[in-house]
Amino acid sequence: MKSLLLGTRNPRKVIEIESILADSGWSFSSLQEFPEVEVAEENGVTYAENAIAKARFYALATGLCALADDSGLEVEALAGAPGVYSARYAGANASDADRRTLLLSELGKIPDASRRARFVASVAISDAKGSVLNVSEGICRGTIIFSPRGDGGFGYDPLFVPDGYNQTFAELSDEIKNRISHRARALIQTRAFLTSHESC
Questions:
Q1: Residue 70 a catalytic site member
Q2: pTM for the whole thing?
Q3: Which of 23, 69, 70, 112 is catalytic?
Q4: How many domains does the chain have?
């Protein structure tokens, strides 16, 4: 079977990606199986640049076709922050909870009507030699609530309520999230690419 490396060590993200790409005809491994591989740098100014850089890095490091993604939360009241710096928003060694706490502090007493935000994700695929084969993007719009809710997901999920729903990403079922989220929308396009390609 055609094989693709998922460029992440986040177990929840691995499950999410594998679930969405399950019927693409490809098999998957992840960086959890390559502990010796270092973490790729993210120096790009866009999500696509970071996703491409990571996909290339992991492909060249393992000799495998690789998929990598980059995503971020853009809050209107913060002029689009944290954006591409979402994962590093509270510092290099901060936890998800640290980042959520900082975001809520930055928003302070901003009312519901001004807490609009969107999640953006880019997903890139590189062949084993570092050539980029495909880049997809997905966007999900919603609102930032005043305190975390839910135990699912990761990152800013407990703070984000997507348009058309009353639950946060961390409260929604995997079935719904894997249909409407920014990453899901990018991966659905990626799945179409993979399904139409016999090899990487």
A1: yes
A2: 0.91
A3: 70
A4: 1
